[in-house]
């Protein structure tokens, strides 16, 4: 585990320990919206800042308005970063976005450095329909506990990987029927993050290198460093079915248009590959 992830895990443990409430059935009865994917799709992210890029948010655009622009562009889901120390996040941001998209059936995902089932339940009680988990931060037993808790409460999961070892662990998980079924339904996604967790710089070549190790039977998500339609086309051609885009959208003058442009480019690339395979 990198020093960055180790720090994030430690502070996350502290935050989990501070969750004093006991979640009741009524706490966990907010609507859950399953992830619905239509070919190449995009998860649009809201985050206040990035350790590598600094402040990202345009203060004149509220979270509610930004969420509505993401929906206007065609995002399949919205990711909200809730980590406070390095990303300026807060659980209140998640609740604001859930409220903003109420009635749209669009799932909202909590993105954080989750290490405890209490944090999964906290996300569910705030109205989240999905959570991100990081394989490198979680030993096998704890990872299984968090996955099982999420699926028990009808949340989709994006399991993030940074290297081939992470993906090998994910392939083993997908050999288990309970996880293979979730993946087949599009509720268990496999992410590849192109960011180097030691330097925090993006290594675009990682998405191509690890594309050869992607598990069969699960939708793959390309994460970090995707900024334009060309990037969406490239990752779609590599076999990724979803792009998770944050910083570029936070800085975009017209987030809705950027979402739409990336979607169209990714879908066009996917269609081209499908046609090529049929004629080969």
User: What's the CATH H-level homologous superfamily?
Assistant: Aldolase class I
Count structural domains: 1
For this structure, what is the CATH class?
A: Alpha Beta
What's the architecture, going by CATH? Alpha-Beta Barrel
For the residues shown, what is the average pLDDT? 93
| Secondary structure tally, helices | 11
Instruction: Kindly provide the radius of gyration, computed on alpha-carbon positions and rounded to a whole number of angstroms.
Output: 17 Å
Helix content: 40-55%
Taking the alpha carbons of the first and last residues, their distance comes to 43 Å
**CATH-assigned fold name:** TIM Barrel
Low-confidence segments, given as residue ranges, are: none
Q: Provide the succession of SSEs.
A: HEEEHEHEHEHEHHEHEHEHH
**Which percent band covers the strand fraction?**
15-25%
Q: How many strand units?
A: 10
Q: Could you explain the architecture of this structure?
A:
This protein is an alpha/beta fold. The chain has a single domain, classed as TIM Barrel (Alpha-Beta Barrel), CATH 3.20.20.70. 44% of the residues lie in helices and 16% in strands. It has 11 helices and 10 strands. An 8-stranded parallel barrel has the order 1-4-5-6-7-8-9-10, surrounded by 9 helices. The N and C termini lie far apart (43 Å). The model has no long low-confidence stretch (mean pLDDT 93).
Characteristic key phrases:
single chain, 280 residues, alpha/beta, TIM Barrel, two-stranded antiparallel ribbon, 11 helices, 10 strands
